[in-house]
Write a structure and sequence with these properties.
The chain is of the alpha/beta class and about 350 residues long. The protein has 11 helices and 14 strands.
């Protein structure tokens, strides 16, 4: 008799068959690159090392007008029996729009989104497919995202009252998840995630950078799907773990995208409280930290309110989540103390 792993999923139970004989559906691997010459070769090599049947895989790469040697590196790398399609754009159109372009060439039920600076181990994709194929209520699954055995992301929770999100065991060692298999999260960062294609069509092109992963998960939840993190799978991510300075670009895109996400997804009174924090308290706080960052946040707020067409098209996804305000505030302080991971 096959062994089973079980966990709560809302009011249901997940039961995972451990036998090796399970369906192997076709999988399209979508990668969005931008100035990725330092990491893309290693990433593509990790695809080549996957134990999932190579005749069931295809790689679709959309390059967002890289200025370095990314395209030349991609074209020189052979993936053996795995077909590879490369689309080179003339302008950087952002992550969500680039994924939508890749989807025009994809017709698979599941899509594997892989960042060019992530390297999943050989059994990573096979495990994710095994779980998602058996669970009709799961829409997005991802493994742990790590750097040198330190957890960068184990998925994230979201508090609608404050509009902030956080990763529960950020910067913890992999050993904290020993013996655990799967946990439900509000969203996963889409660094190396397997997603149902029909949900991926919901990616909102208004997001240029940041927040599109949370928005997608909230829209998926409204359609009855959950997001989960497979704790026995992990992908290595090249990221700086030391304190890193907030840039004006990061602040601008994150604040503007977060206001858009809140407007789109949250009902009253959550919209009022979260907008107050993001459009008033946050710029005031940044003013005492760095006036350039404060100016970037104010500019983002102003541009959001100017985009009347985008705002009129919203209020389609109204998702009410559990209020986790105390946990959110505690993690905001912890993450900012570590160098602004909240951004």
């Amino acid at each position: 008799m096959a062994s089973q792993n079980r966990t709560n999923l809302g009011k249901e139970r997940i039961q995972i068959r451990e036998e090796s004989d399970y369906p192997h559906p076709q999988i399209d691997i979508i990668m969005i690159t931008y100035n990725s010459e330092d990491t893309v070769a290693k990433c593509l090599n990790s695809v080549l090392q996957q134990t999932y049947p190579h005749d069931k895989l295809r790689v679709i790469i959309v390059d967002n007008s890289s200025k370095d040697n990314t395209i030349n590196i991609i074209e020189k790398i052979s993936l053996g029996y795995i077909p590879k399609k490369v689309i080179s754009l003339k302008h950087n159109i952002g992550f969500a729009k680039a994924v939508k372009i890749a989807l025009r060439f994809s017709n698979t039920k599941y899509v594997f989104l892989l960042n060019p600076d992530a390297t999943p181990p050989p059994n990573y994709l096979a495990l994710l497919v095994k779980v998602l194929a058996q669970q009709p209520t799961l829409g997005i699954i991802e493994g742990l995202i790590v750097k040198d055995s330190i957890v960068i992301s184990d998925g994230a929770f979201f508090d609608p009252l404050t509009g902030f999100d956080w990763s529960p065991c950020w910067k913890s060692h992999l050993s904290v998840y020993k013996g655990k298999f799967i946990e439900i999260r509000d969203y996963a960062p889409l660094t190396a995630a397997l997603v149902r294609r029909d949900l991926l069509e919901l990616l909102d092109e208004h997001f240029f950078l940041y927040n599109e992963d949370l928005d997608l998960a909230l829209c998926a939840r409204q359609r009855g799907y959950y997001c989960a993190v497979i704790l026995k799978a992990y992908a290595e991510h090249k990221i700086e773990l030391r304190k890193r300075k907030l840039s004006e670009l990061r602040v601008y895109n994150h604040v503007k995208g977060r206001l858009y996400l809140l407007w789109k997804n949250l009902p009253y009174p959550f919209l009022l409280t979260s907008f107050f924090l993001w459009s008033i308290i946050l710029p005031l706080t940044l003013f005492f930290i760095n006036r350039k960052l404060a100016r970037a946040s104010i500019l983002a707020i102003a541009h959001f309110f100017k985009e009347e067409k985008a705002r009129k098209s919203q209020r389609k996804c109204k998702v009410t989540l559990p209020i986790r305000t105390l946990a959110a505030l505690k993690n905001i302080v912890k993450h900012m103390a570590y160098g602004g991971h909240i951004w």
